[in-house]
Structure formats: C-alpha cells, structure tokens
Specification:
There is one protein chain. The chain has nine helices and no strands. By secondary structure, it is mainly alpha-helical. It has a single domain (1-166), classed as Leucine-rich Repeat Variant (Alpha Horseshoe). 33% of the residues are buried. Keywords: Cytoplasm, Cytoskeleton, Repeat. InterPro entries: ARM-like, ARM-type_fold, CLASP_N_dom, HEAT_type_2, TOG.
Length: 172
C-alpha cells in the first residue's frame, strides 16, 4: 500500500514539475493508473483519481487523457470499470462538459449498463445522470437511439426527471 501511494505521489510531483512536458509520458503511465482505479484500497483509488484529474489540469486537456482512458471501460477488474465512471463524474465536475467529447464516451457507458457487477451498473447510471446534469435533454434523446432495453431507459429517465425537479442542473 505505502509503495503504491508513494509511487502516485512521485508521479504527482512529476506532473507538477513538468506540467505540459509530462504529456509525452501520459501513454506510458495511464495503463498503470487505470489498473490502480481498481485497487482494493479506497485510499489508492482516491489518490489515483486525484492524480488523473491533475494530469488533465496540468499536463494535457481532459479529452486527450480520456481518449487514452477509454479502454478502462472494458477493463477486466470491475473496480476499474466502476472507477472510470467515478472519474468521469469527477472530470465533469472539475472541467465541465464542454471539455469532453461526450459522444465518444457515452457508448462505453451504455455498454456498462449491462455489466455483470451491480456496482458498475450503478456507477454507469450515475455517470449518465451526471452527463444529463451538465448537458440536459440532448442526452435523453441520444440514449433513446442507442437501442437500450426500455426497462433500463425507464430507470435512467426517472433519475433524469429527479435531477431536473431537484434544480441541480448545470446547463451552460
């Protein structure tokens, strides 16, 4: 545990030091960082996500990083698949929806709606709700065209309606 956390700290220091010059290393470190999103320890998963957000903030734009993270949606470890959804929610809250090409990401989330693991399915729904919070009704229309089972769409759209009613929308 300590070794992993120290490694994440060292990478974080490198990102701070190198800033956009770290961009060249992103492809090298991302596979390991994706693996760590699935770590059994909460502290490792949290530090890892913090580092990924820091990379998006200081080394390369969020879309550049996300283009290289899409494989995480198909990762063998369920915690990594769940973690990538949580990381997407965090990215939206830090950088906003305009920082990402969500049309590239949504199909991957839709695949996770049928994941064998319930935590992954819940995280996928939550990330769609978060996208909806940022983007609005376009998401509903888009999901309707994805060929998802109606029962699943009903669950998601009910959550969209709840967010809409709660007044927590962030539309720009």
């Amino acid at each position: 545990l300590q070794v992993v956390l120290l490694g994440i700290d060292i990478l974080s220091a490198l990102v701070s030091r190198l800033q956009d010059r770290f961009k060249a290393q992103i492809g090298t470190v991302l596979p390991s960082l994706l693996d760590r999103l699935g770590d059994s320890k909460d502290s490792v998963r949290e530090q890892d996500q913090t580092l990924l957000l820091k990379i998006m903030e200081q080394a390369a734009n969020p879309q550049y990083v996300w283009d290289r993270m899409l494989g995480g949606f198909k990762h063998k470890n369920f915690r990594t698949r769940e973690g990538i959804c949580l990381c997407l929610i965090a990215t939206l809250n830090v950088s906003g929806a305009q920082s990402l090409t969500l049309s590239k990401i949504v199909p991957h989330i839709c695949n996770l709606l049928g994941d064998p693991n319930s935590q992954v399915r819940d995280a996928a729904i939550n990330s769609l709700v978060e996208i909806y919070r940022h983007v609005g009704e376009r998401v509903r229309a888009d999901l309707s065209k994805k060929g998802l089972p109606q029962s699943r769409l009903n669950v998601i759209f009910t959550k969209f309606d709840e967010v809409q009613k709660s007044g927590n929308m962030i539309q720009s």
